[in-house]
Amino acid sequence: MIDEKKVIFLVVFIFVLAVPSVCALNLQGNHLSPIIFEPGKKIVNHYIISGTDQEVNVSLGGDLLEYIRITEVVDNQFDLIIEVSEMLPEPGLYSFSLHANEVGKPEESGVGSFLSVSLRFVVEVPPHGKAITISFDIPDTNEHKPVPISISVESKGLEDISMVRGQVTIYDLKNNSVASVNLKEKPLPKLSSISLSSSLPSDQLPAGKYWAEAVVNYDGEEKMAQDNFKIGNLDLLLINYSSQLEQGFGDFWAIVENNWGNPIKTVYATVSINGTELLTTPTVYLSPWQRDQLKGILRTDFAPGKYNGTIQLFYDDLSKTENVMFTIFEPLKESQDTPAATIVAAGISLLVVIIFITVFLWTQKRNKQNKK
Fold first, then answer.
1. Which pLDDT tens digit goes with each residue over 71-113?
2. 353 CB burial (10 A radius; 0-12, 13-18, 19+)
């Protein structure tokens, strides 16, 4: 009788021989993508093939192959060469791919027996004139600190820009202009980038929420961008709360928000109705600008109706009181009366039983008459 363990070992051994060892075919070379096409530009990137002892075939696929070629593979090494002519293709985004595949002997062929790897490259063909992209950012900050302003400008065209000018206008949430800043002018060479930066004085804007519009002029052209930002102060904002409270024991919650760019380590609240304190919530920690929920269970022995109340917020060594309104309602009671639907269902069930018994008795009686 054949030993079961030997059979299992033999099957595993054959499987190991039939399937190549787990390895990865790699192409090692400098990172190129994205590639910017410029007239007369030449790029040579050297690649080393690793992770195989087989012969490897290397090929190209995709766009712009008339500008791209590869050298012969020697000792598992080759070059990718990109030569851009003076006449560029149409501006836009293109892509091509580099493929490496093992080439084995015919007797070694089989499912999953050869390894392959592909690299994809993105090519950007810039426009022939002047073009830019801008990135505009004003970070959230605290009151009594300067407000940094920055516009990143990147040239996407093949012509130098003699001068780039920037202006930023700041508005409050009612769309009133509250500040304006002119940024220093700078030249912008083709396919390069610059940063236009400035700041507002520390006390020019009070704490609040704002939005800003940046206008960038470059040699008679214009680009615009917008950004929102906040100037915070050490304050805890009551965003919402549970105004409906069930009589007796019920859940209470309040959503609060840290209104500045530093953490508040100790945050909690007390809840009072008609001057009677009913709850002190557990303490939470708030990260900069974070919202969180204060929760607890309170007991209300007041009759149903509307009541004046307060939520006192404690944050670090400070506190503030918010006047609120609560509505207390009776808890839902289970009805002692039998619902009409239950009565109807019971009646239908009884009728079905009566019909069944009547049919059964009639059938029995008829069978007896037939036997006679």
1. 999 999 999 999 999 999 999 999 999 999 998 765 555 545 6
2. exposed
d(CA 132, CA 196): 14
Gap between the Cα atoms of 153 and 137, Å rounded: 12
- 115 or 366, greater pLDDT: 115
Torsions phi, psi for 28 (to 5 deg): -105, 120
The one-character DSSP state at 59 is: E
Q: What angle do CA 261, 265, 268 make, to 5 degrees?
A: 110
Lookup result for tokens 């400098």: 30
What span, in angstroms and rounded, lies between the C-alpha atoms of 241 and 45? 62
Residue 369, C-beta contacts closer than 8 angstroms, at least 6 positions apart: none
Give the neighbor-by-neighbor strand order of the sheet with 161-172.
Answer: 141-142, 221-232, 208-218, 161-172, 177-188
Neighbours of 13 (CB within 10 A): 10
The type of residue at 127 is P
Structure tokens at 6: 């030997």
Cβ neighbour number for residue 27 with a 10 Å cutoff = 19
Mean pLDDT for 14-43 is 76
Distance CA 321, CA 314 (A): 9
Cβ–Cβ contacts within 10 Å for residue 140, how many?
Answer: 15
pLDDT in tens, 154-168: 999 999 999 999 999
334-351: per-residue pLDDT in tens? 555 556 666 667 778 778
Compute the C-alpha angle 202/151/233, nearest 5°. 30
**Read out DSSP for 175-219?**
--EEEEEEEEEEEE-TT-EEEEEEEE-TTSS-SEEEEEEEEEEET
Give phi and psi for 113, each to the nearest 5. -90, -15
| pLDDT of 37 over the 60 cut | yes
Which token pair is 188? 């912008």
- Given a contact cutoff of 8 angstroms between Cβ atoms, the answer to whether 90 and 125 are in contact is yes
pLDDT(17) > 50: no
Residue 148, token pair as written in the block: 């940094």
Average of per-residue pLDDT values in the chain: 88
Pairing verdict, β 318-329 and 244-246? parallel
